[in-house]
Every structure is written in structure tokens, then in C-alpha cells.
Amino acid sequence: MLEPLADLQLFEASHLYRYKGDWLNCSVSEVVGKDLTPFARQMIEQTKDGPEGWAERGKSIHEWLRGFLTGEPVETDERWKPWTDVLAKQEIFSDNEVLACEYLICDPERSVGGQLDFLVRTIDVETGWHSVTLGDLKTVKTTKALSGRKPATAQLGAYLRMLNEHHRLYINKCVTVISAPGRCKIIEKDPDECYLAWDEAWARYSAGQPDF
């Protein structure tokens, strides 16, 4: 697995990152969220909290996936089994070498911090060919919501840039894994498309920041 970046910290309560003693200006989610409409922001806030809110669901299922990938099972509430059971059956999570999971990473130049969900490597035993996949996990409340959930293209592009900065890794493909109760959808995007989407998101975000 990749070695953690020793000088990078995440303060979860405030969702702030600090690298080499300096606070980073923003997070990946803050940058990509800049494009949300006021209505979308309102709906996100309205459905966030409570036992059935997306915050609890997302946190629980992400913790389960980390335990599943690292071989250190995490006890998860039974109500999330329809989501976790379907994730456990996905080929992308089987017979792979886990390179990183819930991995803190940053872009010091742009002063951005983030946390990628998973990075796995598949090795073809016959040819020896290596394929590295960068992925982001999203959860939705119902199977009906699967069709409307967009891939995390720009978000994945941010992690691509950061991985290249710190580890010089070649990523073969990027995927957004969308989990619903009893169903799962995987959307694959070309790494170059993700990289471009992140640069465009960053340009829009930085254009709205004060020039001190």
C-alpha cells in the first residue's frame, strides 16, 4: 500500500486539512461543490442529518468498504446491509491489490486537500500486465436515484493530479461506484477526461476567490 503523507492531517469536525504545519485553503469537495445550484445546496442540507440522512449512510458504508478492502472488518448497522451486500459482490473489489483506501492527499501548489476512497491494482497472472484503478464511492437512498447520480469526474481528476504530484503513479482508469439498496452501478471515465474536468472546476472556483 502507499505510504501515508506524513505531514498531512485532516480535522474531521471542521473538514480542514493541514500540510507541513500550514492550513490548506480548501478541500476537493468545496471546489467541485462550487457549481451546485442554490436548490441543489438546499436539498443536500435538508437530507443530510438524522438516522436516514446521507451523512450517516455515507459515513457508515465508506467505513464498511475500508474494512472490506483492508481485511479489517468494520461492524456496520444491519440497515446498511442492502448497500454493503451488493458492494461485496462487485468484481472491482475482488482479486485486487489494494494500494490505498480512505487516503489523505493534497495539492500544495493549489492549497487543496482531499481524501480518495480507493486505489486498486489488478495483475493479469498470464501476461503480468498491471492495471491501476482510482475510484470514488457514492451512495444513494433508493434504486430509483441510481439513474440520476452523476459520476465524480472532477473529483477523481483532483486525486489524479495529487497522486501524480506525490507518487508518480500511472492510473489506467477512473470509476465512480454508486451503491443503492440491492443494486450498484459503476461509471468508468477516462483519466484524461477527469483531469480536464478538475482543471475546469478549479478555474471556475479560483475565478470567484478574492485576489489579495
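Second entry:
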Amino acid sequence: MYKNQNGFSAIEGLLILVIVGIIGFTGWFVWQSNNKVSDNLKGNSSTADFAKTKKSPVDPTANWTSYSSPVGNFTVQYPKTWVTATNPELCTNTELTGMFLLGADSSSVGKCATDGGGQMAITWRTDRTFCGDMEGDAWQQNSKQDVTVGGVKATKIEATAKEVQGIGEPEGTKIAQYCAVANGSTYIAVYTQRSSYPNALDDFNTMVTKTLKFN
């Protein structure tokens, strides 16, 4: 048989080329497979990261304290750091009227059986079943809008105290008031922002619109 100068026959040379081709194709195939696996892993990671970003938003009231008034026929939640009035039984004179007093701290909470309503209060009256305006000698009504509280129609009013000698809130005091009629009673949730009080208006609005329920 004819051999070339290097001692290899034509057939042997052809076999070598075939073997080299097979090795090359195998290497290319493995490289392609590894790239696909890597791309799939990246895709799965991206999908997982996207899923994380689509989680439900955190409920700001999740760790709040719950309060239920069997006399007032309502329930509500408020931040754990807030303070409630001592001797709450003194805030309910009869089954017809009463109030639940709150403050962002101990200096802003009202006192039962006094004229001091403090920073926040939820009151109820069965002898009144309507919501009125706050325009008058003591208050400048800034806005009025219809909202929903506890599944019922309510009215939100924002106002500013006028200068009235010897009575009312200091001039410039801001107030936010929600009024709703339910269970044959008129409920009023009111927030007062004096200069000496911590600002808790955002939490107050959340408390009323998200957690106040009428039984």
C-alpha cells in the first residue's frame, strides 16, 4: 500500500481528520449546552427577583393595638406607641353619648370628665343623626369632602381655629374631622394639631379610613 513520506496511509490520515472533527463537534455541543443551562439559570433568577418585587405591600396597621367599644358599638386600631386616656369609664356619661380619647404621647392625650379633649377623640351621640359644617366664629372651614368610613358614607372637614378671646383652641390650630352616621348614632373622629402636639395626622387618617368599623 502506498504511504506518504510521514509513514501514514491516506486512509489513516482520513481517520485522523474524522476523529478530530468528532472531538471538535463534541466540544462545541457541550459548550452550547452549558450556555443554555447558564441562560436558563439567569432567567429563573430574574423571574424570582421579579416575583419578589411583586409581593403585596406591607400593611401599616398590622401591629397596631385593637380597641372595641361595646357601648359605642365600634372597633378601631391605633399605633402601639399612642396613649389612651385614664379612667375611660368617665368618658361615657350615658349609653347615649361617649368618647374614646387618644394622644400620640402622654402630653397630648385628653382627660375624661374634663373639657380637655386632647389630640384625638372618637365620639358618638344617639341624639344626633346628621353631620354639619364647622364654619362659625371659632373655626375657618378650609375643605369639605365625602369619604367612606367603616363602609358608610362620611364627611371629612379640615379647619383652622380663629382668634377668639378666652375660648376655643389657640389661633392657627389645625383640625381634621370625620363624621359618619351609623347604628342610629352620629360618630365623629376628630384630630387637633396644636403646636405642642406631635404630628400624627397621617396615622390618624389611616386609623379612621382603614380600621374604624361600626358594629
